Amino acid sequence: MNARKASQLSAKGDEMEHQATERLPPKDLSANDSPRKAIQSVEIGVRVLRALMDCPRDGAHLRDVAEKSGLSRSQAHRYLLSFVNTGVVEQKVQNGRYALGEFSVRIGMAALARVEPVRIAGDNLASVLEELQTTGLLSVWGNYGPTVIRWIDGGLPLFTSLHVGSVLPLQASSTGILYLTHCSRALTRPVIAQERASGLVVSDDELERQIVQAREMGYATTQGTVVPGLSALSVPVLGSGNRLVATMSVLSRVQEKHFYSKPKIEKIRSAAIAASRAIGWQG
Amino acid sequence: MNARKASQLSAKGDEMEHQATERLPPKDLSANDSPRKAIQSVEIGVRVLRALMDCPRDGAHLRDVAEKSGLSRSQAHRYLLSFVNTGVVEQKVQNGRYALGEFSVRIGMAALARVEPVRIAGDNLASVLEELQTTGLLSVWGNYGPTVIRWIDGGLPLFTSLHVGSVLPLQASSTGILYLTHCSRALTRPVIAQERASGLVVSDDELERQIVQAREMGYATTQGTVVPGLSALSVPVLGSGNRLVATMSVLSRVQEKHFYSKPKIEKIRSAAIAASRAIGWQG
DNA sequence: GAAAAGAGTTGCATATTGTCCAACGAATAG
DNA sequence: CTATTCGTTGGACAATATGCAACTCTTTTC
Fold first, then answer.
1. Predicted TM-score of the model (pTM)
2. Chain B residues whose beta carbon lies within 8 Å of the beta carbon of residue A37
3. Per the structure, how many domains does chain A have?
4. For position A283, what pLDDT does the model report?
5. Is residue A10, in this structure, part of any structural domain at all?
């Protein structure tokens, strides 16, 4: 089953190489892609919706929709007609412009009901871990700081004191750095204070350096600071309004010096970005 | 111009007379409707989306989608494939089921942004939250009950399981009480039934008490019933004919006993009233 | 434990259906 | 008034969706 599902999900990423201004020769469509047979008209229809998504409040002209979706005016008109018939798109009586309609809202509400950040982030992390053949964890903010809520074994046998429920240090874990990066001081200050009272002290300068770096790179790393012999790379999962919802971490042994290669990092990051998008983040 | 637009808009309401269980003979399609030439595949595609809209939250089987949309399995599969290719629909790797995907959320949010009430209410709420230095949310009625459509961080750092897309309980949230107060039983009854089946039971007497109170006061409150440690005050945003269009909620920590002082409550209420007036409410 | 039923997926021939071109009416500009 | 642009529509042709049947994999049944 997994094989079937995998092959089918992999056939996904055909990009629209036609940007906006040129009309599509039909040859291109039949030539380049689509190893699996599907309904072209539907995919074109979605292009039309995409064109309607970022348009002024008072609606888009047919002309613009046609351009953005790479269709002729007559073609675009017919697609819009079908969407109007079904209520997905509305045509304003006043100015004749087109805009997403009531049914689009209904679709969105139905889709929203399925949004479950933790589950989605967990799924994405799990598939990355399987691919990279290693182990990782998912965290969210808990009462005492970043808290491990999922621990996913993916091939790398690790024996650590970490488990579901563990609270990670803000100052000494890659996960913690992400919370420092994305959350307000009011939230993190008391936790830091308590960590320092317990003897874990990292200088403000050093923290600031790591925060800046995390913000620039889009991820954070540590080597052996939480569990000796274990290094980690953590990426943020963001929600609407750039709110930090969770973090995904991928672990490895510190011996494997160059475990976190560019392509691997990209894989991890894109998993987090995909999860973020799925829960409403507009990057 | 108006004549043209009118004729074209009038050609809209062709109903789907095929309910759900029968497969459509192609003859019927070409025979009965569609005086204006459009893209059949798109309208069929929307039928598939409609089938996905009212399905269990963990996705629908291909079989059920096919039935509900009146297509054969192979046909339904191809439509779903196209939607999966475009991100409108997602296929769960685990169980192979289909459900509305990330792009559907984007479409819905784009459509929502064009809805005047939502925009106005969101703006008003945002300015109140900034003034009160706290966090709040906007809800509208969705497929499974009151649904969070905006989450506005305004100073109070809160980490909860709540997010854009969360469905709030009717019986246990201040938002829910408002829907019970202003909406018909026909709308709310099935949701309440499902909540009670899931174990969330508040007695009818207690609900009635809260409803009466909400109607008198013009707002509703709860303390820690949705998210432990978090209390909320919600006010209704009404449209023409006293229809409940949305709700605005302001959050605070339960520790801050007297957060909701008279003047603060008045600020929140007047923001909601202003929004209501702006969208046609005649108070 | 093997067979049967059910689910999801795919190939292929056919004709239904979308595409392109051109044209029309209406509005706006020059 | 003429010229241009825009939304819309008709018709011939060819691309494309359809329906059937088969295949794989899973689940159920006996």
1. 0.77
2. 78, 81
3. 2
4. 77
5. no
